[in-house]
Amino acid sequence: MKDQEKEVEKVFIGGLHEELVADKVISEDQLVPDFPDQIRKYGGKDVMTCLQCGNCTGVCPISLKIDYKTRNIIKCCQFGLKKYTLGTNWVCATCYRCYEHCPADLNPAEVMIALRHIAVREGIIPPFIKTVATNVVKFGQSVKPDAGNDKIRRELGLGPTQSQDPEYHSVIREIQVLVHASKYDKLIGIQDEVKV
Amino acid sequence: MSGYVYFFGCVIPNRYPGVEYAVRWVTGKQGFNLDIKDNREFACCPTPGVFYSTDKDTWLLLASRNLVLAQNERREILTVCNGCLASLKKATEYLQDPKNMGKVNRVLAQIGKKYTGIPVKTEGKRKLFEPVKVRHYVEVMANDIGFDAIAKRTTHPLKNIKVAVHYGCHYLRPTEHAAFDDPNDPVMIDKIVEACGATSVDYDDKLDCCGAGGGVRSHVVELANALTEDKCKNIAAAGADCIVTGCPFCELQFDNAQKEFSKEGIPVMHVSQLQALAMGIDPISLGFDTHHVSAHSLLRKIRGS
Hints:
heterodimer; A: mainly alpha; Fumarate Reductase Iron-sulfur Protein, Chain B, domain 2; 2 domains; about 55% helix; about 0% strand; B: alpha/beta; 4-stranded parallel β-sheet; 15 helices; 10 strands; globular
């Protein structure tokens, strides 16, 4: 694996365990005491209610494939070990199985989503976020229109997709106004694509 | 509220036009003749893996814009995708909170839109509203049309075809969204399959994730494919002729991932495509040549039966 890919893996794919082991001792200045509050701010429930039973890891389909342990991430959230949690949760498939099996009704999937909110605000943004968001502000759709697909649509008698209507410009404009109003363009760095 | 409005989302029109054709055909004049129309101003739901994951405010604004369009038409949204269902349905729940609704409407005013919900009745001077209804295609088929009606319209029963049904996560979970089917023992797609004359085969870990959701496919495709491989092994072990799903993103994942780990692959289709086949459509209209896994042998088997 190329170095760059390794770096991506460390930042975005379950680098938690490895880093924790490498650091051995965690100094106090790494702790962010209000971290659970930050998680709550972005819609996660109180991570302090976690019982550390491990059901979430047990039912997580991702944990079968890579070193990704939901319970460990929640534990780090409890301690305020922000540094170890932010790059690790982009592999969550949001299948919500952990939510269904959580006896503390914590909804770990929503905690992962809150962690993504925090990560993005710290500049940890996987490339696909920008790609998809750019598609949405340019075409109104998350998937890029495709000439081959247009041909098949014609053959089936379906006509072009709505995003190719001349009137769809007003829809794109509306989307850009909304994205700009919530400052999302600035947040993820797609200002150049938003023209309002 | 009367009738529905199509919400095809992004994947179907841009990647699987055959699914769009099938849904229009099954719900249209040739099929169940629903009171349903298009709205060409809809945009991305928006996709939960990106917008709901990174900024809930933006997600809610973009989702509300779509909901307002349906509200102004006084129609129920008929989604054909689990992701669209999850995103839009969750948004209607957020908008039940007057604080969220106020915040959203202050911004929507900039584009001349306002979410109120659909007016149902007036009590004195007070108008009462109900949230815009967001329905899944499968659920509309099951509840509004019914399995008996589907069976009655099956002119070309798919005898001898073994189907592995894949529901997809956001059809089932979080459970409060999926209250229309049993999240632990869902039956609706299986019953549609049986109504089409095919056999739904059980397989291990049927309710597991395809691997694509939450941005995993876009982010680390190998990881998504590894999960799909597990599923496909179980499906192959059950001897299924094809995979049928209610979600175009799961369909895309099964269809694309299989070329990475198997030569032949198991054909995959949306439940609407299966229905259209059972109702006697010419398969050429279902766009199977856009699929990566060839459906030729499956179609031959269907014609032979």
